[in-house]
Amino acid sequence: MADFQTDVPVELRINVYNEKDNLPNESVLYKDVTAVLTKDSIIDGTFTLDVSDYDIYVNSDFFVSIQFMNFFKGHIFLSGALLKTVFKRKYYGSWGKVISRFSCY
Which residue has the higher pLDDT, 3 or 52? Predict the structure, then answer.
């Protein structure tokens, strides 16, 4: 996490998609994976979410998405140092590749 400053805790929905034509395709999850992001949940600049109870199995390339579920004032800057390629979309629009630094407001 590059920087996190919000006025309220941020509710997240995490999704995992299989890959088709080098883009996220269909969700492989059977139930919602959710979390609440707070300043206290970020330790040494890292937010960790244990998903071992969700029975997530993939056998090919996949994408992980983060959806912000509530409105907040402030900003969240994500670090993509370990990410190969970053995509984003608004609501349920088309996926698009992010060329420059990825940040969410």
Answer: 52
Structural contact between residues 12 and 34, judged by C-beta atoms closer than 8 angstroms: yes
Tell me the residue type at 22: N
81 CB-near residues (< 8 Å, 6+ apart): none
For the chain, give the secondary structure using H, E and C. Answer: CCEEEECCCEEEEEEEEEEECCEEEEECCCCCEEEEECHHHEECCEECCCCHHHCCCCCCCEEEEEEECCCCCEEEECCCCCCCCCEECCCCCCCEECCCCCEEC
Q: Tokens 């960790």 map to which residue?
A: 48
Structure confidence at residue 7 (pLDDT): 94
Q: How crowded is residue 13: how many other Cβ atoms within 10 Å of its Cβ? A: 14
